[in-house]
Each structure stands twice: as structure tokens, then as C-alpha cells.
């Protein structure tokens, strides 16, 4: 049996089919990642709904997905959990897995945007927290450096580390 030589059209057709397969896999993998993130958010939102205490501070209300929308309806900023009382607000971001870059971004950029888009909390003490299922040593070090509380699942319960919590 003689091998058929591939034409340029054959090669381009193979590339197009491969590209289609890769795009579909990426779409499906993104869906899995979104589902894991949604699960993590729901889990920690439920934790704080039951017991709205963070950093030794009791909060009166829990706002899931505190969001500021622009005039065009596009989200300008969103926080997964906001805990509010008369003079303090805790902003807690939830990720399935936390990366050190995210800790820096929360402390250096997102809290500034919060002040810009939510001026009604301008005089409130603002505390930051990150909640997730997976933390590495570098993340823990970054969080302590910035005074950000750590909320993580440990077995059937939740552990909150906030001994160096900073008010922003």
C-alpha cells in the first residue's frame, strides 16, 4: 500500500480540526474551574452566614458577592464576601487555590479600588481575608506580611488565622 502525500490543504484541515478540539477542551476545563470556584465561594459564604466573626470582630451582616457595576452594566470590582458592622468591613476573597500574586494584588490594588468604588465605607476599618481549600507556604508568608487573614478548611471545620490582621 502506497502512502498518500499530504497536500497543504490536508495539513490545514488537520490544524483546523486540532484547533477545534483544543478550543472545546479549553471550554470544558474552564467550566470545571468555574464550578470549583463557585463551590469554594458557596462553602465559605455559608460559613460566615452561620458565624459572622472575623479577626475577633463580630459583624452584623454578610454580603455575598459585593459588586460595583459601571454605567454599562460591566462589573468594576467584586468581593466574594463582605462582612459589615457599624465601623468595620471585612473583605474576603475566595479561591479554590490561592497564589502569592493574588495576595499582593488584594493588598496593593483591590483595596484601593474598593475605596474608590465604595465611598460609603470610607471611614470604616477595612480588614482583608483570603479563603480557600489549598494554601502553600509562600501564600501564608505573603498573607502575614500584608496582615491578611487566612480562612481555610481543615477536616470538617474551618480554621481562621488572623493574629496579624491589619486594618486598611
Care to give the gist of this entry?
The protein has 168 residues and is of the alpha/beta class.
Describe the structure.
The protein is α/β, with parallel strands linked by helices and 168 residues long. The chain has a single domain (35-161), classed as 3-Layer(aba) Sandwich (Trna Endonuclease, Chain: A, domain 1). It has 3 helices and 8 strands. The chain has helices at residues 8-50, 100-117, 137-146, and strands spanning 53-54, 57-58, 61-69, 75-84, 88-97, 125-134, 149-154, 157-161. It has a 6-stranded mixed β-sheet, with helices on both faces. A two-stranded antiparallel sheet has the order 1-2. 25% of the residues are buried.
Please specify the SSE layout and strand pairing.
Blueprint: H1 8-50, E1 53-54, E2 57-58, E3 61-69, E4 75-84, E5 88-97, H2 100-117, E6 125-134, H3 137-146, E7 149-154, E8 157-161
Structure keywords:
168 residues; alpha/beta
Order of helices and strands: HEEEEEHEHEE
The helix-and-strand class reads alpha/beta
User: Counting H and I runs of at least 4 residues, what is the number of helices?
Assistant: 3
Number of domains as seen in the coordinates:
1
CATH class group: Alpha Beta
Taking all Cα atoms into account, the compactness measure Rg is 22 Å
Strand order in space, largest sheet: 3-4-5-6-7-8
* Low-confidence runs: 31-35
Distance between the termini: 75 Å
How many beta strands in the DSSP annotation? Answer: 8
- Main sheet record: 6 strands, mixed
Amino acid at each position: 500500500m502506497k502512502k498518500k502525500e499530504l497536500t497543504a490543504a490536508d495539513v490545514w484541515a488537520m490544524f483546523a480540526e486540532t484547533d477545534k478540539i483544543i478550543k472545546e477542551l479549553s471550554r470544558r476545563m474552564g467550566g470545571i474551574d468555574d464550578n470549583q470556584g463557585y463551590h469554594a465561594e458557596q462553602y465559605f459564604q455559608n460559613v460566615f452566614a452561620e458565624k459572622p466573626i472575623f479577626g475577633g470582630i463580630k459583624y452584623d451582616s454578610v454580603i455575598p458577592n459585593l459588586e460595583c457595576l459601571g454605567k454599562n452594566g460591566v462589573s468594576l470590582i467584586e468581593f466574594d464576601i463582605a462582612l459589615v458592622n457599624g465601623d468595620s468591613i471585612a473583605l474576603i476573597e475566595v479561591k479554590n487555590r490561592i497564589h502569592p500574586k493574588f495576595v499582593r494584588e488584594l493588598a496593593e490594588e483591590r483595596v484601593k479600588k474598593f475605596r474608590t468604588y465604595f465611598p460609603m465605607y470610607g471611614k470604616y476599618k477595612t480588614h482583608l481575608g483570603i479563603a480557600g481549600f489549598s494554601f502553600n507556604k509562600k501564600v501564608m508568608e505573603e498573607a502575614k506580611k500584608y496582615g491578611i487573614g487566612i480562612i481555610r478548611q481543615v477536616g470538617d471545620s474551618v480554621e481562621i488565622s488572623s493574629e496579624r490582621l491589619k486594618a486598611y
